[in-house]
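SUBJECT: A protein chain and its fold
Encoding: whole-number codes for local backbone shapes
RECORD BEGINS BELOW THIS LINE
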Amino acid sequence: MKVSRYPVALVATLAVSSLALTACGGSDSDDDAQQKAPEGTTALNIKATDPAKLKQGGTMNWAITTFATQWNVAEIDGLQAGPTEVMKSLMPSLWHSDTHGVQHPNKAYLLDASSATVKGKQVVTWHLNPKAKWSDGTPITWKDIAANTQALDGHDKAYKVSSTVGFDQVEDVKKGKDDYEAVMTFAKPFADWKGMFNASANQPMYPAKYVSDPKTFNTAYVNKIPVTGNAFKVGNIDKSAKTVTVVADPKWWGDKPKLDKITFHAMDTGSMPGAFANGEVDYFDVGGDASAYKQASKVSAGEIREAGGPNYRQLTFNAGSAKLKDPKVRQALFMATDRATIAKSDLKGLGWKPSTMDNHLLIANQKGYQDNSGKLGKYDPKEAGKLLDEAGWKLSGKTRKKDGKELSLRFIIPSSTPAATNEGSMLTQMYQQVGVKLQVQAVPSNDFFDKYITPGDFDVTPYTLLGTPFPASGSTNVYSAKGGNNDAHVGSKKLDDLLNAASSNAADPAGALKQTNQADAEAWQLAGVLPLYQRPDIAAIKKNLANMGALGMTDVVYENIGFTK
């Protein structure tokens, strides 16, 4: 999962709602549409506690949305929320992200790293902790940095990676003064180099021998996790129960984990509130599920922790579909979507002020955020109808037709995900107003990405994009023409060039933000992904669990999670 956004389809990890539909009439006023994000949306709410004051031992039961077949989260099929959270507990991350998205070396692995210009080229020197080892006893060295870089640089297309961003700019990686120093030279500058080998950017490191050739990279972690390198190691993988239990690794060289075990339980999001109420799980991501929020709030042993992060709910329109190939049709559907009404409905009952998100790359509380949507961000059924007319889709009764075919679209959603069901019903009404039929098709949650979205077997679909602190490079896998998670199948050289320029502009942060916004404006015109609203980070968690909850822009420090005394 390189430096990237990654897609999340399911409740706890997305904005979900079981609320009744709201009428899809006029949109909110301009003032409402321009509401600012809630104050403190990058705040941290994890019951931060000195680990020394926590109990030693215990098991945390953690609900996740999907059980993986691919546990290499750098491989395209592994880039999903459930597998990612499991693997972050098991694999090295060289960095920790603070509440403002600033990156700090994770001293368990990285003593320090620095970037300098040498003979006109950017050179990053990594100093690894000599104590760091893989679970098989092999030291973590410059060879691991080199092998991961080679796998992700995009030169060998046999590696099935979802993004090459940043790594594709590396010219070479060489051994420094010893095995624990890696010297990385870039062919062109990469501003977000701290996103490399970084869990906050969804890019933990894997052992060199398991990523050194395409076949091994693609298959070594399928249905198994052979080697790890973190405070926890694999205890048990139960495919029938869809659980993964990780246990404290006695060979861990860092701060001793407070917990004995973490058991990750993959389950339908609709089952999570009940499992939490029954004490089967200690933590789940509420996302925007008002029903789950209400139910979890009543659990006497639990509490709700809220923050915000770089995550947003969106609709993806598949340009690979014959009926959506014409950008005018996609642009028309953008304007036929009442985003403000959807935001109000999805977020009702959560204590979260709804407002539309008008930028693909930056959220409202980030520096540089601006609305680049133009007319495509405005709810305007009349203008949408005009565009459909121009595209040759003429009204015939209540439905538009072209060449004898109806403009009927498949809206694929994961089952047991109330927000998606809600959105499907609302969009059905909205699109009817412009003569477009929407056929809502619920599919099994575990099949949603693997069998429908990634293969392109859909017309329109909703899911949440979980972001990173790196707005340009962190979005390349979704918005670049050949991005591994470009499910919309749209792109342009202009957008690619702007994303690359912003990612490379290490010397001019203000210029990089300008290029990021120019890239966003181009993404609006391509009309592949329609941002709806910033997704709140809302966690239901047992009261006595500390150092975990609503993370904002930070990452989980797994060894610090524990129960209060």
Remarks:
- The two ends are 37 Å apart (CA to CA).
